[in-house]
Amino acid sequence: MIQLNNIEKTVKSPAGTIWLLRRINIGVKEGEFVTIMGPSGAGKTTLLSIVGLLDDGWAGEYFLLDQPVHKMDRKRRAELNRKYVGFVFQSYHLLDNLTVQENIDVPLSYRDIPRSQRAAMVADILDRFQIVGKKDLYPNQLSGGQQQLVGVARAVAGNPKLILADEPTGNLHSGQAQEIMELFRKLNQQGTTIIQVTHSEVNASYGNRIIQLKDGWIVGDSAKVVEGSSAVVST
Predict the structure, then answer these.
(1) Are 8 and 23 in contact (CB under 8 A)?
(2) Total structural domains in the chain?
(3) Average of per-residue pLDDT across 41-59
(4) Is 234 a member of any domain?
């Protein structure tokens, strides 16, 4: 599903060039649940942003579903993002002036989907996540766990093939975090590919593979045997 070949990213500083990622080679098969770990500044979020088609300033080759992302302009990459990717952020990124129902509808509104069909999709997601009773509430009327639940619901509303999660439980207490991670596990079991960035060993245990970064380099890539899993590690 994903193939990264010699991905590198630098930024300029008064002290010279700073390397954020160096010679990143990763393959992710459809249906995997991958965790990216490493200390602060290792390049985890940078890598996730590249995979999620949110970052243009990098070098190397990136194939998503056999499509050469590295050869595409920003407009085409944005189209791929809307079509295939759902993003879950640590800080929720809900729009404060929109209700729960309207927040979930936002990513669908960017796609060529008739309004009536979008309404049906949102209704289905509200029911699936058991938040129908909160559909007319605004983010500031929700707890942190409820906001993150809405964030996940928004990410999966368009049935993306790939969910990217950046520290998705960092602001939640343990009970809320477990609820979100169990939800990710269920989505993965239903066929959704998931890549998460986390510092949590508990969160990492929900996946079937851990990629370790340090100073922009991959320093570890290991898969654990999961019953019924056909995940294959490619490095």
Answers:
(1) yes
(2) 1
(3) 95
(4) no
